[in-house]
Amino acid sequence: MNKVEIRDRFFSRYKELIRTEMIPYQWKVLNDEINITIERERNDDSIPNEKSHVIENFRIAAGRKKGHHYGWVFQDSDLYKWLEAVAYTLREQMDEELKSLADHVVDLISEAQEDDGYLNTYFTIEEPDEKYNRLWQSHELYCAGHFFEAAAAYYEATGNQKVLDTACKLADHIDFVFGQEEGKNRGYDGHEEVEIGLMRLYRLTQNDRYLNLARYFLLIRGTDQAVMGSKHLPLTYYQAHLPVLLQENAEGHAVRLVYLCTAMADAAAETGDEKLLDACRRLWKSIVNRRMYITGGIGSTVSGEAFTLDYDLPNDTMYCETCASVGLVFFAYRMLLSEENGEYGDVMERALYNTVLGGVALDGKHFFYVNPLEVVPGKSRKDPGKSHVKCVRPQWLGCACCPPNLARLVASVEQYVFVQKKNRLLVNLFVECKGSFEIEDGILDIELKTGYPWTGSLEIKVNYSGTACVCLGIRVPSWSDTTGLEINGKSTDSDAEHGFVYINQVFKEDTIRLELDMEPKRWYANPLVENDLGKFAVSRGPLVYCAEEVDNGKNLHLMSVEKQEPLEYEFKEALLGGVGVLTASGWKTEADREDLRLYRQGNAAEKKVRTKIRWIPYYSWANRGENEMRVWIREENQR
């Protein structure tokens, strides 16, 4: 069995945070056992935010309690994602008390399942006669997909047979109900996810029906064959405006789109379906080349939590949902399973280190739904169009999809470090760890040592018990202008091929050293991105940086930096859990307080004063109270 053990200082802190803080905290929230403020993610009175009620919904559906369902129709998925995060935590470090708690959750889920395999607390409790009648909005298959993922993870971690049996019973039920055969329901869920879960279940059980069902849900989407009933939003919102093989642009609800792409890429990798893979490539290019923020965030508008059009990337009204970046990581990884392109790893890294980690506070108990690139507290409070742009992370959210989603991804980050393909092993993320892989006639042991993301030095020790030639591919990030590569102390060619450097040999206690360029860099958006014209963003390594009011004072829009001004780096151990800080000498415009006219001719009343501008990593912002923040800063020509 292949295995990877994380020993990384940066991610170990997050994994320990998940184990000791996030999982217990989220359990209390799901049980309504903690006195917290649940915020609506935007000004919308229809969003339920009195309580979570997730566990209580299952108790009622199981017949243990009496009452009504509370919350969204997809509320069940909060528990499934929590269970998946628990599974990864137990896989890494067995905790009998936590396992016992999770086993009881599995029992509860099993009791809530109906005799025919159907499982959804809302429709079981409230509308049993409406099952599968409102697929555009019901999220029944979406919840099923999340349960399949959780069940597979929990079975693999603990060997709990009941969770796998319950999942297969549900999958068999869905397979009985849906399909193109005569008499079956020819619909699909409005929110993609069941396809991902079915692929996960297929790989675990090798039951071809689950693979075929996943492909059915993918390929019937957007076709005239599908029977869906009434809808309440445009077809683009559901990625149903065209068959998936014909879709060219990233459209609609951002999370749904990347979940769709994840499943398509997964099925393509499993079956070798080139048409599916081509469709994935087109949608990938649409996202990455024209519709993605520099932080790895996606979704340009609060309306429909959706993509809009090419190069429309507003910084202060965007959506950039945490779940969307989680889904982008999933999509990128699945694409790497089919083709070795370092861009997939670059984008995965960008989304993971910036928007995903930015979705949780350093205490593990506050969460962002939306990840803005520019905030002014007064505007978030008083502008209805910016009510979704929070300045500090809420304790919980009325729509709580993001907190457990983030937890399950970061808890399983070791799964994304390597990609194995027969006798090839790709090093995709630079996370300190040890791994063992079955390759050809032996076991390849690999150890990564690094201080990433603060240093660009990577040492890789490889030992192979077999006799075959193994190909080791190491991703060279596109942001690294220069790269040094040594094998057993000797410098060698570091030219990358599609974003990877390759070493082909029979490995026997070999040491490889990679040195990446960690100089701070300025980035400029395409001039068609009107919001960023005349501005720049800064990064160092995989981390995008931002400026906060607590370091730079109010009115961050008045700051500017000359084009040639150098960026200086310093690591601050005592700041925000230990972060690298960037500084530069810049200017801040000061208005004449005695001249209060709104408009005037010329800039005679303005003056600029020298100031030191400080940036912190984007993921660490909003941990020091409510204040302004922005990623893009005005740039001036040399005076």
Automatic annotation (TrEMBL):
Please list the residue ranges annotated as the Non-reducing end beta-L-arabinofuranosidase-like GH127 C-terminal domain. 521-634
Name the domain of life: Bacteria
Q: Which GO terms describe its molecular function?
A: hydrolase activity
Give residue ranges for domain Non-reducing end beta-L-arabinofuranosidase-like GH127 middle: 425-518
- Start and end of every Non-reducing end beta-L-arabinofuranosidase-like GH127 catalytic domain? 4-414
* Keywords of this entry: Hydrolase
- Which InterPro entries does the UniProt record give? 6-hairpin_glycosidase_sf, 6hp_glycosidase-like_sf, Beta-AFase-like, Beta-AFase-like_GH127_C, Beta-AFase-like_GH127_cat, Beta-AFase-like_GH127_middle
Q: Which PANTHER family match?
A: DUF1680 DOMAIN PROTEIN (AFU_ORTHOLOGUE AFUA_1G08910)
Annotated protein name in UniProt: Glycoside hydrolase family 127 protein
